[in-house]
Input
Amino acid sequence: MSGESAIGGTIFEVRAFGIPIRLHFTFVLLLVFLLFIGIGGKQSGAFTALYVLALFGSVLLHELGHALMARRFGIRTVEIVMFPIGGLARLDRQPRARQELWIALAGPAVNLVIAGVLVVWLVSTGGWVPVEKIVQPTDQNLAERIALGNLLLAVFNMLPAFPMDGGRVLRALLALRKTEREATRIAAGAGQALAILMGLYGLLSANFLLIFIAMFVYLGAAQESATARGQTLAQGFPVRAAMITDFRTLQHGDTMRDAGGLLLATSQQDFPVLHGDQVVGLLTRAALLRAMMSEGPDSFVAGAMDRSFHRLSPDADLSEVLGNLAGHCSLVMEGDRLVGMLTAENLSEFLLLRQIAAALPSRG
Output
């Protein structure tokens, strides 16, 4: 599958082992916040920055552990996105229960290895600082705090609740005896319950960072539950069952004025761009507005269109492609021929109709 859409809100991209690694803008805000609160104590600014970067590197290695274990099972990682509560390795398909178990365990295992190596090195060199002195950050206890940070990352991620790794382990174990949907529902419910407890404790203790983490955990668990519900409703249906077949297109020689006219005259938000009968790109609403403001209405759509658009086969299983849509428009291609479009809006309508249809027999 080519042109998988990236998660929105990401900035800056590098690659490791061929995997795109992107930072979510909220993660950058967290890095700035950690640097701000760390400077001014007994630890120098340079060592504060080094500590924050070391934790960033530990989280990244954690996600690479997931990605490389997934590769062993023939599962490709679409991207790694760094969020404030950790990273997310997006896989191109849902692993089976036993595969998910090992993939989920690989991340915390990396953090335990990092912590173990640092502890062995510190003890062997006689540089270990007493535990009671680790609480106060100094330049001398940097390695101990990095080791402790990795240990806490492993323990936190192994909490048995979505979207943490422990929740995925829980789902994998449950899926050995239950349906995937039921296993996901239980694991996601545990994640939401944990998030509520964390949020309440954060409110009572005035710990706003804990409240922030609880919010992300709750939203992550809710999203996993919604995705599992959607996959169940879409199972057994091809992409062609949900795609739009009545749509408008642009030619690569059209201008932004032409595109703006279509945007106003129709309810369509994204427009396939053709060169004759061949699809050469996709012009999204966001790209249209950016080009209109920066280049003007007489600029050409070819300069603003996405040439690496997301494409789907009309016969692909709809339940298997839900996770890769990421809220963006996909073009449905039969060979080189454009036969439809799949957007978040019409997909939501399809799933809603499926949910209503599934409920009808129980009412009648």
Remarks:
- The first strand starts at residue 10 and ends at 16.
